[in-house]
Amino acid sequence: MKVKSPLEIYRYLPQTNCGECGYDTCMSFAAQIIERTVKPTDCPPLVKEAEKNPKVKKKLEELIEITSPEVKEVIIGKGDKAVKIGGEDVLHRHELTFFNPTALFYDVWDTLDDKEIDERCSKVVEYRKFYVGEFLTLDGIAVRCTSNDPKRFREVVKRVAGYGKPMILVSLNPECMRAALEEVAEERPLIYAATEDNWREFLELALEFKVPVVVRSKDLNKLKSLAVTFKEAGVEDIVLDPVTEPVGEGLKGTFERVIQLRRTAILGEDKDVAYPIMITPIAAWALEADEVSKAYWETVIASIFIVKYGDVMILHCLEPYAIMPIVTLRYNIYTDPRTPVQVEPGLREINNPSPDDPVFITTNFALTYYTVESDLTSGNIKGWLLVLDTEGLGVEVSVAGGQFTAAKVKDLIKETKIEEKVNHRYLIIPGLAARLQGAIEDETGWKVLVGPMDSGRIKGWLEQHWPPKEK
Ligand code: SF4
């Protein structure tokens, strides 16, 4: 995005504050464009006026141009299940944020029997890993044509479409690709891949079926030339595959090609390659090695390119030990650094507590909250856990920064009605908030006990301090 402030966008808007966009003022709407939660075309009066007046139309086009991400955003799939790739604006997350997490597609192939295909598809659909309050999942299925038989490829693609996940169709044979597209083009699969040898047929397919397409070449000049050819012919949704080589000098070369593509795209040096990048960690399975080693290399390659600019990937190994590091790393790289990860404040009941059980308090910083909650739950500790809104900051920082205060603790006690649920007035605060002990007692009238620094020690601490001697 070429603009950095809402004021620059405001100049292009009608400035009537009519509220039709759902925001009270045009300035708030402009701020949301910067946040990428709305688009210029979400302002109805602007769009209506552009339809009648060529000058306004030009203005709207200019606004779309200056607010578009540096890297084109491409959508694979349709409806709620569609996945967005690309759409990035910066080279480093701390400069703003990364927007669209690397999309992970796992393969099935059409020489498997139907039962094996169903097993793999189910694994992709059902994969869920709970992490910092969210379920991490996989994005889609890449269907590889290994039969080279259009009829079989079409059948398998139809079967896989039944699982409702976005798809990548993988075949270099235009006949096979056409057969598959006749079956599932409406699902908006990504087709893989147009090369030096088949690009004419793939260009026809992309135009005829209106689907996004991968162009593939290890030579970046040829890759660019393919992208330009497709763009000039009217294909908007293009993905670049600079060819993933799994080890040694090949891997080093892959890394250099990816960095070069993304740098030139983001720095505006070459808009002809400003498209999402495809990485194929599955290439590790062509190595001569045992299965676990291949899975190891696949995970290494995926990790490198989750950190550096891989927008979409095709992978093979569905073992939890291979998937877990990939989805966890992706979560961490694509977390918005401008907003701390937080949970809802309020009251949580841990292990069906009774009115005699202890009351703890922690912050709503997700990492702190889930650590405390898991230590209490897994330690079979019954208790009441107050979660204070510290704007997503941890205990030490929020005590120092004034987000964890005695007055806020008093409000939380009132809001959660905890006084009606327990028959004592003891509150256990984290050891890192010890300096608030007196202030909380004065403000709330509760007796404050200073718990351990580390929630992993709560169990041992309770053995010595609960129930309180002076109850
Ligand atoms: S709909 Fe357009 S004109 Fe109306 S408030 Fe929103 S941005 Fe402003």
What layout of secondary structure does this protein have?
Layout: H1 6-10, H2 26-35, H3 44-52, H4 54-67, E1 73-76, E2 83-86, E3 103-109, H5 114-126, E4 129-131, E5 134-136, E6 140-144, H6 150-161, E7 167-170, H7 174-184, E8 190-194, H8 199-209, E9 213-216, H9 220-233, E10 238-241, H10 248-266, E11 278-279, H11 291-307, E12 312-315, H12 320-333, E13 346-350, E14 359-363, H13 366-378, E15 383-388, H14 395-401, H15 406-416, E16 426-429, H16 437-444, E17 447-450, H17 458-465
Parallel strand pairs: 3-6, 3-12, 6-7, 7-8, 8-9, 9-10, 11-12, 14-15, 14-16, 16-17
Antiparallel strand pairs: 1-2, 4-5, 13-15
Helix pairs in contact: 3-4, 6-7, 7-8, 11-12, 15-16
Entry keywords:
single chain; about 475 residues; alpha/beta; 3-methyladenine DNA Glycosylase II, Chain A, domain 3; TIM Barrel; Rossmann fold; 3 domains; eight-stranded parallel β-sheet; five-stranded mixed β-sheet; 17 helices; about 40% helix; globular; binds iron/sulfur cluster; cobalt
What is the CATH homologous superfamily assignment of the largest domain?
Answer: Dihydropteroate synthase-like
Instruction: Give the cofactors and ligands.
Output: iron/sulfur cluster
Integer average pLDDT: 95
Structural class: alpha/beta
Largest sheet strand order: 10-9-8-7-6-3-12-11
The number of domains: 3
Q: CATH first level of the largest domain: which class? A: Alpha Beta
The DSSP helix count reads 17
Radius of gyration, Cα only, in angstroms?
A: 27 Å
- Please give the alpha-carbon distance between the first and last residues: 62 Å
The percentage of residues in β strands lies in 15-25%
Shape: globular
Low-confidence stretches: none
| CATH domain topology of the largest domain | TIM Barrel
CATH architecture of the largest domain: Alpha-Beta Barrel
* Percent range of helical residues: 40-55%
Q: How is the biggest beta sheet arranged? A: 8 strands, parallel
Counting DSSP E segments of at least 2 residues, the number of strands comes to 17
